[in-house]
Amino acid sequence: MKVHLLKSAEVNMSLFTKVIDFLQSITGPISFIYDLNTTAYYEDEEIFMNQIIDRVEFENKKTSISTDSLMNMRIFPLERETVDWDVLFKKSNQYRKNNNIPNDEFIFLLTNIANKQNWFASLDEKMPYNGFIHTDDWDYYINCSAAFPIAYEVIALALQKHMFEGLYELRTKVHESPIGCVNDFCYHKREIILKLRTGDVCEDCIERANGKISVPELHHALQIMSSLREKMLFAQNLKKFSPLSQLIIDPFNKIYLSDFGNIEIKLRPLEKALYILFLRYPSGIYHSSLSDHRIELYEIYATISSMGDLAEMRIRIDDMVNTLNDSASQKISRIKRVFEEAIGADLAKHYYIKGEHGQQKKIDIDRTLVKLLNN
Questions:
Q1: Other C-beta atoms within 10 Å of 34: how many?
Q2: What whole-number distance in Å separates Cα of residue 314 and Cα of residue 163?
Q3: CA distances from residue 174 to 10, 65, 85, 120, 182 in whole angstroms, order as listed
Q4: Which own/partner pairs from 150-154 qualify as long-range (CB within 8 Å, at least 24 positions apart)?
């Protein structure tokens, strides 16, 4: 199974790449294909300006099957831009035509523009290998990165295409009352929290997929959903009392928390070099002493980054250890943010670099939990 992901111009690139990272974190027979240089654009006449929507309309789907407090603050009635479903599906069709993509491969458009039916996502009744996912407003319903529910909806749409014979059956045979299954209808949009937290498919729906999707593909889809569920619970700080995980640095210098669903901590090369340096010094390092570790940082960075020549690498390190600028402080702040987004603030404090101004900065994690597989 191949799933092509296309983003509209309004979708933040970091959000788009995070969705891709989540989907690709589990290997299997489902391929997720994307082109970061390709973007879908809306024509002015395709967008309906200033749709007025009240709170009830905002929180509920419109139930037509035709293709024609976690809440963040919203001021109602809300004015927003919307597009018709036909416009959304047209973008997928055009992308398919431009790139000669076969009709049995999925194309899902990720778009920030709301749709008139006010749905999170839908397949195209005329061409069910096309679909869209709305990437905005998730913060109103769930307290974590929108990348989690968006990635979940990618899997949900792919499964629903194989579980139901057409959009009418999909709309009429889903679970009207939520049970924590991927096929909960979620007329009241807040009900989506339940199925995101279960990351499950009920037995009846598994049976629907029997013979319509290969066992390896179904297993892969379920693994991705389970992984998203686990990561989302950590990100929401709902597992803050979990025992600490081992921190693994593999031969490719990728950082994983192996006991937290093998969550990868994605740092940029300079951030990773700085982090590994601090891991080597349990008692900590003064910010003013970073320049004393310049040669060591050269060596660490050289093993991590293949970009640029040695002279360029040294310039980057020299800039980071220069106490007259805030390069190191910025990287330490971003390292903290990446850990907090991955596993929640309570658990993250054991793993990131911290320390009061003027004091030694260090990583608290017990070094017996740190495994360097590249050494």
A1: 18
A2: 55
A3: 31, 12, 20, 15, 9
A4: 150/15, 150/19, 150/110, 151/19, 151/22, 151/23, 151/224, 151/228, 152/196, 152/199, 152/225, 152/228, 153/120, 153/121, 154/3, 154/5, 154/19, 154/23, 154/32, 154/108
- Tokens coding 250: 């593999």
Strands 106-111 and 78-83: unpaired
Q: What share of the chain is helix, strand, coil (3-state, %, to 5)?
A: 45, 20, 40
Strand duo 48-53 + 353-354: pairing: unpaired
Nearest one of 281, 335, 275 to 301, comparing CA atoms: 275
Give 375's pLDDT tier (boundaries 50, 70, 90): low
Terminal CA-to-CA distance of the chain, rounded, Å?
Answer: 38
* Residue 211, C-beta contacts closer than 8 angstroms, at least 6 positions apart: none
The pLDDT tens digits for 25-63 are: 999 999 999 999 999 999 988 888 666 667 777 777 765
Token pair in block for residue 230 = 């686990």
**CB-based contact 268:260 (threshold 8 Å):** no
Q: Check whether 86 has a pLDDT greater than 70.
A: yes
- CA–CA separation, 196 vs 216, rounded Å? 22
Structure tokens at 67: 């293709």
Sign of CA dihedral 116, 16, 316, 255: positive
The structure tokens 């402080």 sit at 329
Two tokens, residue 182: 């991927």
Under CATH, domain 2-235 is a member of which superfamily?
Answer: Collagenase (Catalytic Domain) (3.40.390.10)
Rounded CA-CA distance 131/63 in Å is 18
Question: Which residue spans of the chain are classified as CATH 3.40.390.10?
Answer: 2-235
The owner of tokens 């007025």 is 52
What global pTM score does this model have? 0.80
Residue 368, classed as helix, strand or coil, is: helix
The helix-helix angle for 147-163 and 215-235 (nearest 10°) equals 160
Q: Which residues have C-beta within 8 Å of that of residue 10, sequence separation ≥ 6?
A: 111, 112, 113
Distance of CA 58 to the CA centre of its chain: 24
Give the largest Cα separation in the chain, rounded.
68
Mean per-residue pLDDT, 120-148: 91
